[in-house]
Amino acid sequence: MTTSLTRPGALASAAPDTLASVVSGRRRRRRRWAAVTGTLAALVVVAFVLSLMLGQTFYTPAEVWGVVTGQRVAGASFTVGELRLPRAMTALLTGLCFGMGGVVFQTMLRNALASPDVIGINTGASAAAVIGIVVLGWGETAVSFLAMAAALIAALAIYLLSYRDGSSGARLILVGIGVAAMCQAVVSYVVARAAQYDLPAAMRWITGNLNDATWDRALPVLFAVLVLGPVLLVLSGRLEILRMGDDTAAAIGLPVERSRLLLIVAAVGLLAFGTAAAGPIAFVSFLAGPIAVRLLGPVGSPILPAGLVGALLVLVADYVAQYAFGTRLPVGVITGVLGAPYLIFLLIRSSRSEGTSL
Amino acid sequence: MTLERSLTAEGVTLGYGDRTIVDSLDLSLPPGKVTAIVGANACGKSTLLKAMARLLSPTTGQVLLDGKAIHRMPTKQVARVLGLLPQSPVAPDGIAVSDLVSRGRHPHQGALSRWTRTDDDAVARALDATDTAHLADRHVDQLSGGQRQRVWIAMALAQETDVLLLDEPTTFLDISHQIDVLDLLTDLNRERGTTVAMVLHDLNLAARYADHLVAMAEGRIVAAGDPAEVLTEETVEEVFGLRSRVVADPLTGRPMIVPIGRHHTVVDEPATAR
User: Fold this and answer.
1) Does the model's pTM come out above 0.80?
2) FRET partner for B65 with CA separation of 20 to 30 A, picked from A34, A40, B54, B203?
3) Does A258 touch chain B (CB under 8 A)?
């Protein structure tokens, strides 16, 4: 049978069936994205509220609500208002930062291993923050901006060091791991030389810790999420187009270099402010993106879902770290234990060349 | 009907880093016609196509779209007029066919304007025209090479541009699918007046389908014009370093290349007897 595969006249008008399937496919993708994102958002709210209610003392939702709306509630005003609320806020916000910032890098470099906590961007921010606090004695906001500058420099250094005839993903990851090790050494050196009374604060920079979360520390990261979060969401369409490769993206009218730069700056900003608030909480960026993409499937932008997964991870991991072991562990210990097996799994899979793309 | 657009390269020098690939070259695509660019591997034809599509900035000279310097025009505005299908495009992992084709509508969407019926319709027509409608919900990475190539062409069609550039649109396709793609591009040219320019490897298909043929060697244009005038034994020898016989295509009368390998005896007179 010799039928032509192209239908004559199709250029003029579409078959009704085709049009219907295009429309229904588009609606199905949008509904799925909304359903997954909505469910994740609901889970984050539940985890947030539970972490305010539960602890060594139980407070009812009414008592928690009272504190949140500014009433005086005996006992709860201090425990919830000054301890649990800033802590839960910091957990939620840093989780959003790490998840959203991380998935931008993973998507742009088409590799789950290209997560900012693997390639040294978080560690760069961490090194700057520890210097800012221990050596320079700066305040929270100044330290946040210093961390952001350092994270941008780390990102630029990784890019330049791995640049040769167009940037290759694998080289960038290896160079990034080297940069991460170097920054980690700086952190260890500064912490080792820190004064005794600085040590608890400085320890935060080794694994990421929410045990000393305060309102002072939560505010800069809140500001970052409110400013850079919407910026990243507006840019999410551009990230989706960038996934088609530079040539196709440019051919369909995306200013490729400018879009990439904007995405990197916004993502690094979120990562740096998150790191400044809670330290480099291990593997949150690394895990959040792939989990979100797995839940979502290939529908729509993973940026917001990854942020919500990140927030959920940090909230739950911090709760486990506080109450499951009798002693208050840093949250990064729990996320590190979760992330390490996945890292090993990806490294094994990449050496079998099955790929590590999202 | 589409407007006739002019796309011209004026004295463009192109290269990557210090390496110059194309040196002060002039090229004008005849509006409303099908142009094929042929040449040996690494002769600069893909580089030239990229520059014509403003993906590569020339170090000297300029590319003009309707008389305006293309590299200085807003890229989205260019994308509403000029489409390009790169040589080996990459699809995002797991993306559905209709989602990929829909992305061809990107230049038609503003920052605030929503997806409309017109967009759906353009996507559906592109799927129908490339016979990929039955694949609409499949994942692109599950498709065969030929199906995937048709899906990419559908994406370029959904962009609905007056000028369409294609870098080897027939690679990965078997002969019948090659003919399908070239027939489709001819339909596009005849029904909509789209100006088509493509890099092709197969000289005989280029001669068959092109109104205008450009032969390139070592970054310069050796010959350009009607295929019957361009495709001579001398040009083929100069461009590809290949000896050949050029005979009339029994179907269309256009030139047809019969290559002469080391193991073939050359008969002095062209074969006339049956």
Assistant:
1) yes
2) B203
3) no
